[in-house]
Amino acid sequence: MMATTEECRTALDTLSDNLARTDGDVRRAAALDRSLSCHITDLGITFTGRLADGRIEVLDTRQGPPGEKAQIRLAMAGDDLVAMVGGRLNFARAWASGRVRLEAGVRDLLRLRALL
Questions:
Q1: What is the rounded CA–CA span in Å between residue 14 and residue 96?
Q2: For the chain, what is the domain count?
Q3: pLDDT for residue 108
Q4: Is the pLDDT at 104 greater than 60, yes or no?
Q5: What is the pLDDT of residues 24-35, one digit of tens each?
Q6: Rounded distance, CA 48 to CA 107, Å?
Q7: Under DSSP, is residue 108 helix (H, G, I), strand (E, B) or coil?
Q8: What is the CATH number of the domain that holds 76?
Q9: What are φ and ψ of residue 66, in 5° steps?
Q10: In what residue span(s) does the SCP2 domain sit (predicted)?
């Protein structure tokens, strides 16, 4: 069964809560202030917002791909987002296999790898 828009939004909120509770290298990596988009490919929706102060703030949900190019861009199926946040799918493996796309500037990618 395919994840719903609500399940994906809940997963992003849970990810935000998890990031806010981290410390050390992960906390520093999440302490960026960047625009963020998360395109859910199988649902054809995009969540847009900001990664700021170690939290993800979702500001909008729109149909289709991202309208503007965010500084950090994620794309994946809804089931993969829910599975990653639930600890059933390893982000690094999903990214390496192409199930998850992460695009960002080189500096941001270097900082974000601590989250992987």
A1: 23
A2: 1
A3: 85
A4: yes
A5: 766 666 678 999
A6: 21
A7: helix
A8: 3.30.1050.10
A9: -55, 140
A10: 28-103
